[in-house]
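RECORD TYPE: protein structure
NAME: Family 1 extracellular solute-binding protein
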Amino acid sequence: MKKITACVLSTLVLAMGILSGCKQNSQSAGSESNNNSKVVTIEAQTAAPETTRVENLEKAAEKLNEELKKQGKDIRVKVKTKVFEGSWEEYAKQFMLAFKAKKEPDIYATGHENIGWLSDGNYILPLDDLKKSKEYSHVFPILWDSVTYKDHIWGALQDTEARPVFYNKDILKKLGWSEKQINDLPEKVKNGEFTLDDMTKLAEEAKTKGLTQYGIIHRPVDGPDFHVMVYDFGGKLYDPKENKIVLDKKAVKKQLDYYYEIAQKKLIPDNLTQMEWSNIHKAVVNGKTLFYYGGIWNVFNWSQDNFHEKLGKVDEKWVNEHLGMMLIPAAEKGGKPLTLSHPFVYTVSSQTEHPKLVKRLLELVADPALQVEHDVKTFHLPVTKSAADHLNFKAHATLANVTYMTEYTTFLPNHEGFPTYSKAVFNAIQAVELGKKTPEKALNDLEVQLKSDLGDKLKIVD
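PREDICTED:
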């Protein structure tokens, strides 16, 4: 995940103690006159470091201005960009404070999971018309689920990603696998022939034979990846009809059983949930694990820091030679494998003075070329089929080869209570991996805690 350091936006905000710094240009918001044309300034904000999310809006504004000129309208749109540098919690708090002061951006780029509280707090406008627009007609259908809340669309999809399982090709070769077998593994997973249990057994074999230090590694901190296991075991995380977080006890028990098993078999590091991210990346690129639950953006991470003991930074070509990517295997033979995505979205302030111009800008920024420029630079996936078919995207072998994963993806609930649920589940997983609790005990304690923390926002399914 991104590591962002906070800085200061203004002395007023500093005194308030919550708002953090935003890099921005010197343009003032609102409207002004320029060469007898009315200039409408639209503010857009995103979090560092993917600045292309707002830079693309500036490019979309150029197209919008061309449209306005052809329509004979004496208006010119200028986008004022802000890039926030701080934690995700601070990013949300500074938006709420700015909203109260009526100084929030017109366009607020954020993770899809935030649209629940943004909607409930009347911070943002519904964007149902986007789904009917020509520009969003080629969106991968499943992605609309990520921006739907209470039967409305609340965000313009900006990008998405996949969280595959990386596998070490060198270790598989040492196990006697042929080149064809190695290259066919993603397809076997896709067809439900290679299951989660097969993955565990293969990791156990590699470790037993001394071919790798670890069989499996996952993220060391709380995050989305863990919850994909509930989906894999046939469970649910959210009930949209009742708008409640779901504790699916049967699926969560299997989830805890899985992490308990790989810990008891010593397939993961003893202190995995206490490790630094840098040590996770070093273990993966240095061949110390057969499998790694990661994200496609890790390919970019490994090219930016000296994680490899001999080579330092490793490029995309090196990654593809030594590592492969596959979907998370199905829990049962013949089942459907899956992944989990975390789409970033543009939301529109309910206080914007220019809703029509803003919405048209969001249509134009979905241009395939603009999507691809961002995706290739930041190692993300496009949200429309037209962008996925763009020649510049197809030329990017790594991303093009995993785009199919979008059809198998899942999402976190767009509910304000989910962070509480997620933290509690992570603590339960950590407890079973460290051997402090059995899965049964961890589940019982989890139920008690969630009942207390979430109250009537929780639905328990036995």
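COMMENT: The chain has two domains: 11-160+342-410, 165-340+416-461.
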